[in-house]
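Hi all, long-time lurker, first post. I run a small reading group and we've been trying to get comfortable going from sequence to structure in the token notation. Rather than ask abstract questions, I figured I'd post a concrete chain and ask someone more experienced to write out its structure so we can walk through it together at our next meeting. Sequence below, copied exactly:
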Amino acid sequence: MNWIVARAWLGLGALLLAGFASSTAAGSGRPTSDGLLDAPLNSVRRVATDTLLLVNATVHPEPGVVWAGGSVLIREGRIAAASERRLDTPAGARVVDLTGRHVYAGFVDAYVEVDAPGVGANGPGAHWNPFVTPQRDVLAGEGLSGRDRAALRRQGFAAAGLSPRGGVFRGMGAVVSLAEPASDASTGRPAVYKARAFHSLGFDRAGWRTGGYPSSHMGAIALQRQVLSDATWRRDALAQGWALPRGEAAADAASALDELARDVALVFDADHELKVLHAVDVAREAGRAAVVMASGTEFRAIGAVAEDVREAGARLIVPVAFPKAPDVSSPGAAESVELRELQTWEQAPTNAQRLVEAGVPVALTTHRLRNKGDFTSRLRRAMAHGLPGEAAHAAVTTEAAAALGVSDRLGRIAAGMAGNLVVSDAELFEPGTSAKVLDVYIDGVRHEITRSDDAFVGTWDAVLRDRFRLVFEIDERLRVTVRDGDGGEPAPAAEGEDAPEAASVDAVNVRVEGTRLRFAFDHGKLGFEEGPGAGIWSVSGELVPGEDGERRLVGTGVRGDGAGFPWRASKRAPEDEGEANGEEDEDEAFELKTVPALAGAPFGPYSREAWPEQRAVALVNATVWTSDADAERRHGAGGVIEHGVVVIENGKIAFLGTGEMFERSRPSPDWPGEVIDLEGRHITPGLVDAHSHTGLFGLGVNEGGQAVTSEVRISDALDPSAINWYRQLAGGVTTVLSLHGSANPIGGQSAIHKVRWGAQHPREMRFDNEKPGIKFALGENVKQSNWGDRFTNRYPQTRMGVETIIRDRFHAAQDYAKKWDAYNERVERIRMLRITVEEQDRRIAALERPRLDLELEPLAEILRGERLIHCHSYRQDEILMLCRVAEDFGITIGTFQHGLEVYKVAEVVREHAIGASIFSDWWAFKMEVYDGVPGAGPLQSEVGVLTSYNSDSDDVARRMHMEAAKAVRYAHPDAPVSEAEALKYVTINAAIQMGVGDRVGSIAVGKDADLVVWNTRPLSSFARPERVFVDGRELFSLERDAEDRRAIQRERARLIQKIMGGDESDRAGESPEADAEEDDGRLPLAQRMMARAYRMHALEQLRRGMDADTMLCGDCGCNVLNAAGVR
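-- Answer (accepted) --
Happy to help. Here is the structure in token form:
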């Protein structure tokens, strides 16, 4: 006993001596804490053990590069060296043998949303708009919970770009470590790789019924543009010493605008493919780098997205959240699913692959997944749908790091990079892989992902004493079954006895400690002959690397008589297990999922691979309704040419005349065009709709958050894929005036669009060199008469207030224009000086530049005669009011829209406006429209008011020729309107009002070849377009439509069969319906009641045979959006 005590004291003394030595040797121990902000150590100091050497691994230092037998040296959390060969072991390094393992750079999730503290509305530097909080810092909040960090690590992520949640300018993002904080606070907190790494932006908006600005997507864009412009102006003002606006302080660390002056990337959250385009445009205008958190449906506008992203040098962060398969379980359910939804389900897993193929830089993220643990399975699904393994590897490493601006420290295995590694049991980015992430090293610290226990699970072939063969079967609960491995059959049963079962026994006392396994089993129950070693055998083994890279179990055991023996075991591959169990080995190679190529644009039914050629065509032997004054003078009959000919070349009208005239000037025999005989057919100009909201409701048609919203642009809400474009094209409409809604006295900027079905990009529908316009509105909508009792505090609430605010803004625009005129004059004087261009630029930069005001800029254009007003109006007193305002400011109004009482004051309107675009026979749908009359159009036309009929409805727009026919029907018998004259109400008159009468609206040489071929007289109730040309391209024909319908039926049937017969993994996905139900449950009671009311309204519309989401005439989006604001 004395000897034992002495040995104990000697050991303790040695330990104390070693501790003293280690604590006093320079550099061999840690200080009392790792950082100035870390807690002090509350125990003895630790010996430094920060050097780690990983050897014998298959290392993937970056995508496309593989080192067999590579090694990585990590020191103090950073990679000190990496090599394709075995590195020398530094003194004190811990060596980890990774034979048979693969090592990658730690993955980076480029976009993870978290909550961040808000900022006080009245704090220093706060912006007036609560959606603008760029001074928020994501690091000021709690960040990711331990549960979320663990979930990301299980997918292989070691770092993440954290983005503040909520808002238009959401705050500063950061790139952080996903390490689990150490239990000892003195070791410091997980690393922040880059603080204030990017500005986070979104397109959030206030609810329509809750008030606030912005209330629309286009409002969010306008707010982004204005704030970014203001930040640049303030930065220049501070640098040049310009006078700041009253009440604003100089540079302030808490200032929203000063924070935005920080030159880092703008990261936009875009949950729709078109929003990706808008994000890129906003960043490009501001001269900033753009990174876009994409929607996952970019394939629906792949051409436009790829082109814009590449040209801007932007990057995309792409989710792998795929939609759940639509319900097609019954004929009724299948019939209710749109083809576009079916195609979206099928194509969604190809999104990343199509973007990569198009040359777009792509990073992948767990964002938009309901369960982050689904990331790996969704990534493999994307790879199964064609995403190359190398691209997938890059998307979570190098591309993700580049998107966050941290390529110098994350995303690769190289000296100087963070010690972030992923260890797997096989190749992670090979199609069909089932590899597991075993460990994630973050800053050199190992985080176990797959428990070491799991390495034991499977079937092992064991050899004991080099003689006996056994099989150890270990399940996921670490239960061990031992059976005879020699393959012998059990002895036959004696007569009258049951056949014996195969010899096997369950092990007992199973223990797993790290890489060591031990258990015991009854040797006698395996059917071996009794002998001196019979009884309970115990074995203990260690996992060790084998020569072929696979793990082996090697150990020792003890027989029943106490004699020892060696043993070893090798693990069967999964296919070997199947063979051993008598299963058929199909040896089936992994196959990529087969998904059809994208059919073209737009995504969905009636898509076009490309626009038809602008070929030369002669349309002969038709009745041509020209709507042209010159043709009327030359040919008479109201400009209607019997047996007429129209020749199209290069998208323009090259010839117009009679058949005789055509024969006299017939092209040479080698003319490359086609002659189409249209005997019995009629040709008109393409119809023009002077009031349209088509293709706008997906992103919002009204910005009702303020009384004046002239800064918003309706073109920012255009969706070229809306099916109503095709329906209207089939009705003969080729040009429309897309207008903002009527929620405010001064609304947003309008745009003129050609109905170019098949457009890849929204801008391809824009009318070239159009006359800019803007929407004004008067009456009940703008003073919120029918909005409910809660909407009584926004100015104006009376018609007097409407006039006052319009006048006020025009006066403000005059003052604004004077400032810019003075500035521009000074710039011109400097440009006239005989000095170098560099010196001119320097002096101009020093000039005090006026602040760009996006609200006043278009109003100044109105005052300069560069932009037309299109004013929603009904009552005569208001119409007179705006005429007087226009006279006072020297403005010519473009059109009075709706204008139901224009006929009462037609003489005044004739003198102050280009014309009036009205309804044919809509009235009495609210108090201010009770004096509308169906004969208003002919009445005011007789006085000299240029009159057009418009739709203000997706449904009415399909039958604009019938609207024109009503002018014939309702004209006074003493002043009849001919069919030719009535046709002008939906052709040339509307075009002139829009400022494009020199291009469209009539058939004349040199004009755009926008033409409609009808089966009979165009104003007949039996008239139907057979062909429609836009810019000389035949974009619609009955023959092509019939082919498309058959193709749609075939495609629907194929997709429904694919869903019904596919495997569960293909049908799995995110459920928008579940999201909607969950969101609906969180709404206040009043809004839930409103949502139910909207659903009932929609059902009633459907019962009447109407589309519930189409416009109702006269409400300009207010009626639908009042309900839709809670959808």
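A couple of things your group might point at:
The first strand starts at residue 51 and ends at 62.
DSSP finds 30 helices and 41 strands in the chain.
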